[in-house]
Amino acid sequence: MTATIRKLVPAPLKRWIAEQVQPRPDAPVPPSPRDLQSEMTCIGAGVRVDPSVVIDYAQGLCLGNDVTIGADVNIDAQGGVMIASGVTIADGATIASSLPLPVCARDPHLPEERAWGEVFIGEHVHVGANACILPGVTIGANATIAPHALVDADVPAGTHFGFSKAKEPLTAMIRLASDGEASLPPTDPTGARPATGREQTPDICFVASTGRSGSTTIASLLSRHPGIVAKHEPRHQIIKLSTDYAHGLKTRDEVKASLERLLLDGSVYHGDRIHLESDLKYFNLVPILAEIFPNARFVWLVRSGYDVVSSTHGRSWFADSSHPVWREIYWFFNKHRVQGDKTGAMPAADWAAMSAFQRNCWYWTYVNETIERDFAALPEDRKMFLRLEDIDARIDELVAFLGAAPAELTAARTNEAFYAKTSPENWTEDQKKDFERLCGPLMKRLYE
């Protein structure tokens, strides 16, 4: 990632940073950190965030215990931002896990894609005023970042970054509103202090699926239970990680180490609540997650291939990269979509010859068969197979499987599409034959 950042020309990069720290007069008023608190991946106790802080994609932000964030800080968490316990971020700093740079003809001097990558800030780091941290950066514990520093490379633990030989003083860099305004309310009504996964093993469940199969619905449904903290796709870091593993670009040990940092070191959990994460990118990570969390539960959430392929094809999955939806909205998902040839499922020539519709059919079968294979090795009390079509009738069973107390919950449809839908009735005869060839055997096994 650092190499990618260094290729950006200085002037456009400076313009982008200026845009982040100087809000436009016509820009809408962003939600306050307190309004976004429930959306964050995780948040510890004793967190103080000035109301002026702007957070983009709060779902990707995790704050440890006793984190302090000063005034006018900008955080872009699209690529994932993990801020460990005891970190102080001074006024005007910018933390960017993705660069929303112009694409294509809007600015010919810049790359077509936004550069993005997880930002990980270790325990007791001090980030100086107006510093800017770029995507893909890891800052080790007890490091200090100088005011106005541009951090485009990893910073070792315990070191000072960006200071002159004289070393500027670290004074007058935190300006917070009153504690009543800056302190975020505790997320645990009992006042219990969250702990990292390394400090205390959480009671956790992972939902694996193809996507477009109710992964949002199940998280939204269970988040209404007072004893469950349920999140949908809270960790964009695993988008690339999961695909790299499927493509053989990362070893099992490398993936495990990344997940341990993400789930054990970079996240805090409430000891008296059940945590659930629903994410399509967990489809090939079940054995590793089961090893990291020996008592974790797993739900295989499946939806009829007819509905999933209609949805994914209509959403332009596996479309050519020139498609506007591919470039503008879901580029980070589409760029790291699993490819049949790279998984070893078929020769490159066969994958290249497949239509987008055929690839969507292949994807539904490949992902579900991967989950099916890995679920076979799990003990019965740690796994649950659930069809989306049965979720209303099996809500009580699902809650009991998680070990939560009974509660009145009703599933509601979420994540409405804004794109042109397709349906089996409108498929061509060739598409119907393709679906039967690629998805038919598994459909019979799962639905008949």
Briefly characterize the structure.
With 448 residues, this protein is α/β, with parallel strands linked by helices.
Give an overview of the whole structure.
The structure is a single chain. With 448 residues, this protein is α/β, with parallel strands linked by helices. The protein folds into two domains: 2-176, UDP N-Acetylglucosamine Acyltransferase, domain 1, CATH 2.160.10; 200-447, 3-Layer(aba) Sandwich (Rossmann fold), CATH 3.40.50.300. It has helices at 2-6, 10-21, 33-36, 179-182, 215-222, 237-246, 252-265, 286-292, 305-314, 324-328, 331-335, 348-353, 356-375, 395-402, 429-447, and strands at 42-43, 48-49, 54-56, 61-63, 68-69, 74-76, 81-83, 88-89, 94-96, 119-121, 126-127, 132-133, 138-139, 144-145, 150-151, 160-161, 195-196, 203-208, 228-232, 268-269, 274-278, 297-302, 383-387. The chain has a six-stranded parallel sheet with strand order 2-5-8-11-14-16. Strands 1-4-7-10-13 form a five-stranded parallel sheet, with no helix packed on it. Helix 6 (237-246) runs antiparallel to helix 7 (252-265), helix 9 packs across helix 13 (356-375) and helix 13 packs parallel to helix 15. The radius of gyration is 23 Å and the shape is globular. The termini are far apart. Residues 1-10 and 101-114 have low confidence and may be disordered.
